[in-house]
Specification:
Helix content: 25-40%
Bound molecules: adenosine-5'-diphosphate, magnesium ion
Number of strands: 11
Radius of gyration: 21 Å
Distance between the termini: 38 Å
CATH superfamily of the largest domain: P-loop containing nucleotide triphosphate hydrolases
Oligomer: single chain
Amino acid sequence: MNNLENETDHRIKEISTSKVNNEKFTLNIQISKLKRNTHVLSKNYDIKKYLDSAKFSFNPELDELIPKDTPPYLDNGEKYVERIGRALSFFKQCALIGPSGTGKTHIVYLVAELAGLPLWEINCGLQTSVFDLFGRYVGLGKENWIDGLITSWCRYGGILYLDEANMMKQDIATRLNPILDQRGHMVLTEKDNEIIQRHKDAFLIISMNPVSSEFAGTKPINAAMRRRMSVWLNFDYMSVGAKIDEKEIDLVERKAGISRQDAEKIIKIGAELRKQYKSGELPYGPSVGDLLNWAKIVADGVSVLIAAEETIIALTSDEGEIQQIVRKLVQKIAGTQ
Ligand SMILES: Nc1ncnc2c1ncn2[C@@H]1O[C@H](COP(=O)(O)OP(=O)(O)O)[C@@H](O)[C@H]1O
Ligand SMILES: [Mg+2]
């Protein structure tokens, strides 16, 4: 998929709280709405073979959870979209492994849009409570129960996306395990042990950073969850270290409207920062979207070096010492030492 004409960085998230009511259920959820340019994508991907939106039927109230206008996912023929589609269709769930900024969340939105699946997203690194995820009574007495996010997914179906799944707190992981079986169910102990069968079209995608000796700050995913994942897909940056992807240079050159030479510098620096992030030397590795932001400042008539100050250097860390490492690297590769 080489469609570089399309947007890649327009995933502007707008969090809104939405209340959905009908006689059967009450949903009170946070929805990440995606505002994007409209593209007709489906012809670029062969996902229908595995996940056919015409064969799913969800409560129309969930329509607003189906992502819209997701930009294309750029890859080198790895067919990630189709492989995720296949994993979900065969096994109902899969795991995405890759450093932050490699497009894991992006591709989940894309798959959900192409397959017409409502998306329930949870970032496990955030301090989300068991109540938010499983549900609770509100007000006095036992009249007003509100399903949590995981409960809603289990009941009504769609894709549950657990971002940074290895950061999940143990109390949540323990409750999640019985649901992870393809024909799993959940027991709402807080609601008179109500048993909810996993909806037939309830899919699960987990994502995480690779756990390796040199990768700082990650911990392995718990064994129960590992055992239940049949497919593991590895993601990496388009360019990293000495491996430079011409398509990423093209993209930055064209989308930002800067010279080829400047685009090359930005991608080379980005690739080196990513390498150092992957080896634990830096706290952050830039995504293609981050590099594009840097290039956009350059396009306004600022030098690569000056533009780096308010973008890539500040983005990588708040610490002066780390910023200095990045600055030196920018100077070295941008050739103005
Ligand atoms: N292969 C890719 N094709 C298109 N956009 C990408 C790709 N990889 C990353 N991006 C962009 O980079 C940014 C970070 O991606 P994201 O999905 O948040 O990464 P992750 O979830 O792996 O941390 C987003 O703006 C995303 O659109
Ligand atoms: Mg993500």
